[in-house]
Amino acid sequence: MSINASASTANRPVSVDLTLDDALFAETDKSLLNSSSEYYYAQMDSLFPESGRARAKAFGQFFTPNYVSAPMIESIVDSLEVDPPTVLSVIDPFCGDGRLVVDFLTSLAGKDWASATEINLSIWDIDKRVLSQAEENILKAVSELALHCTVSASCQDAFSEALVKEGMFDVCITNPPWSSTKSLKKSFFDREEEYCRYKAVCESYAQMLDKIYEDVNDAKHSRIVDTNISRFGLSASLRLIRRNGICGIVMPESFLSDSTSRTLRKYLFTETNVHRIDYFSASLKPFKGADQGCVSCVMSSCEKSTNIQVQSHYENNKEVKAYIDATSLEHLAKIGYSIPLGYTTEQIQILFKLANNRELGLMPGICIRKEKDETRITDILKSKGDFTFIKGYMVNCFSMKTEGTFLSYSDFKKVPDSVYMPKIVWRDISRASQKKRVKATLVPKLYVAGNSLGVIYSKNNEENMYVLLAIINSYVFEFMINAKLANNHVSLEAMKKTGVPYVNPVDSTWITSIVSELLANESQPIEKIALLNARIGHCYGLTLENYLLVLDKFDFDKDDYRCFLLAAKKEWEECR
Questions:
Q1: What is the pTM of this model?
Q2: Domain 58-247 falls in which CATH fold?
Q3: Which of 396, 425, 171, 380 is nearest to 275 (CA)?
Q4: Which has the least CB within 10 A, 173, 353, 376, 431?
């Protein structure tokens, strides 16, 4: 493997030549990965010599708050209590500052049987700075808790060490690094040469991991350039525990729904016994400076999962609990074991029912795409032109506000067909903390949407776009798509995979009339929105009881919820 970054000059861009010799991977042994990791650490350490936010982000160090680790640790200790061990081998292969191990030992010390248990504890980390801190913190805790515990600290790469220490531990508890080649933007670096070297080193290391940890790959969706190496951390952690051993791990929330983790999720739910999953919303700010939620998973390396507790945690101590049984897992297998977070058991069953509707992306004549890259778009925007330009923040449900900026024919190699048609646009960027994530409206022809918007149009103009807009803005559609969203984007893929109902001519006429009113007026009476949502819910084939369960997923103002409740009762009473 070679990584060559040419020296930069003031006027010449840096070129990075990153090549991988496939013959190098003929033997996937520890020494190969170890040499790569030593180079990776040396380069990263030289790029980020000072402790701080940049170094933490580069190394993927997201230290775990106590409230995130608590339910995971409780589940692990409860499992051990079923048959208390006399000797217990424990590993944190990505120990950071050791806080997870300290919390685990503290919980363990509260059990009467733990005083008679000999604990052999191993901690690893590639960053010698945090490892030294972890060892100090853990030794202090062991002394204060009066446990029979030996501590072995080793500065090494867990990804390489896991290859030769498979099945050696009873318990693995960890939060692996979450770094990727997109962890740091160019603005973090003083010189372009440093940014290029950073990207090259990260991509090279990710490629090495991708070659050796083949069980992580999803060949259809894997892209090295934005690989989050936490997925490799999960695979390494599962290798380390012995048969009937138990693993507790903290992961990015996207792991449970993104397309790149499908293969690993399948292994998790079919080859291990997942005991519980806890989801912590981004609104809780579990990691300072990052709008990032997380999940913790507890699993044992024995028979496959049969009954999984899924608990979601939000602000103001709000919690939502669900259980996923073997039958539910069979349904989830059809969608790549994407786990709905923040749904009750009953709401998950409604999701399965709604999944029988045709997917939006499979509707005849419907196209879903992006239109115009917004990179340096301000350089070409004009006060007059051939096409009105719009972008994400200008769009809301059934409305938009333009800024009087335009593009010309000359700004395109080829003007997309969708520009010449009326189309639905929706906001791409939408954070999980928002009350409503899908916000769409209808725009006339000769409008160009930047790529902060997604675009839907009909090739044959036979589909009623007013009805489709009502469906996309509905809370039932929101209810379905939220279970698919893996990050702060409402992606094309998620939109394509979300179901839409058939609408009869009578309902189509009524819905079109209401949507026309909403599009024509700046004020949008909540009563009309509520009636429209109720009709859409009925078109989806929901019962009144199921529709109300859908509404329970969302945080309505008291008065708004009353309007939705009255509209729902009216809709189902009239259609008896």
A1: 0.85
A2: Rossmann fold (3.40.50)
A3: 171
A4: 376
